[in-house]
Structure formats: C-alpha cells, structure tokens
C-alpha cells in the first residue's frame, strides 16, 4: 500500500500522470484529497479525488470531487496478503463516466486498457 499511497511519486511510474499534488491529508498523514493532471494521449484531464483508507491498511477507495471531462469516477485497490505477507494479490476496480458521449464498445475497451495498464505499472514499480 506504500506505493499506492505515495502520490507525489506517481509521475515517475504512472505513464499518464503528469502532475499529482496532495491537497489535504488525514491526521495520520495519508492523503484525503489529491489533484491529478492526466495526459493519456487523446484523453487529457485535471481532476480531484477524495480518498478513504481502511483501518487495516489493505483497502483504499476514492470518489471524484471535480473534473474537466469526467462526470464521475470511483475506484479502489484492495490488497490481500499472500505467502505470509511477502507478496499481495491486488484487486483494482475503477468506474469512470465521461462528460462526452462514448460508444459502449469503445468505453469497455478503454476501461480494460486503463485497468491493465494501472496494474502492470503498479506491479513494475513494486518489484523495482
């Protein structure tokens, strides 16, 4: 979860993240509100997310606060420790609703690419 929670480092390992700023934190120092500047080729957006962290440190979820081309975004990472805590199974869920109309098939393809890319980039960063 340390890699996921380290938002200022996102531009170094998330290819589409050009700038990430923690705007607000909880008393424990974890981010509660974060601004992202995203450039994924044809999709460019600046948006803010509100984060909620589980007490056990194995889940984080988020909701869109404001965005340019996004009407809604919600998602989560859930970590399930494996092999005595030496590794973890990561479940990533994401829902994005754009302010511009997108054909269903194109939207499903984009969701798959986003999800696959996010997990691959996270895995690469953690194993570094």
Automatic annotation (TrEMBL):
Q: List the CDD domains.
A: SRPBCC_2
Q: InterPro entries annotated for this entry?
A: Polyketide_cyclase/dehydratase, START-like_dom_sf
Q: Known SUPFAM superfamilies for this protein? A: Bet v1-like (SSF55961)
Going by the entry's taxonomy, the superkingdom of the source organism is recorded as Bacteria
Note the Pfam families from the entry.
Answer: Polyketide_cyc2
Matching entries from PANTHER family are given as: COENZYME Q-BINDING PROTEIN COQ10 START DOMAIN-CONTAINING PROTEIN, CONSERVED PROTEIN TB16.3
Supply the name of the protein: Cyclase/dehydrase
Q: Which organism is it from?
A: Hoyosella subflava (strain DSM 45089 / JCM 17490 / NBRC 109087 / DQS3-9A1)
């Amino acid at each position: 979860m340390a890699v996921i929670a380290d938002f200022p480092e996102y531009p170094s390992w998330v290819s589409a993240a050009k700038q990430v700023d923690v705007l607000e934190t909880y008393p424990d120092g974890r981010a509660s509100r974060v601004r992202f500047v995203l450039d994924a080729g044809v999709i460019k957006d600046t948006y803010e997310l509100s984060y909620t962290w589980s007490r056990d440190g194995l889940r984080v979820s988020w909701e869109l606060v404001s965005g340019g081309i996004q009407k809604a975004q919600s998602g989560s990472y859930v970590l399930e420790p494996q092999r005595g805590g030496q590794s973890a199974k990561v479940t990533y869920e994401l829902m994005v609703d754009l302010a511009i109309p997108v054909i269903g098939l194109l939207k499903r393809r984009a969701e798959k690419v986003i999800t696959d890319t996010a997990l691959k980039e996270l895995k690469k960063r953690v194993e570094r």
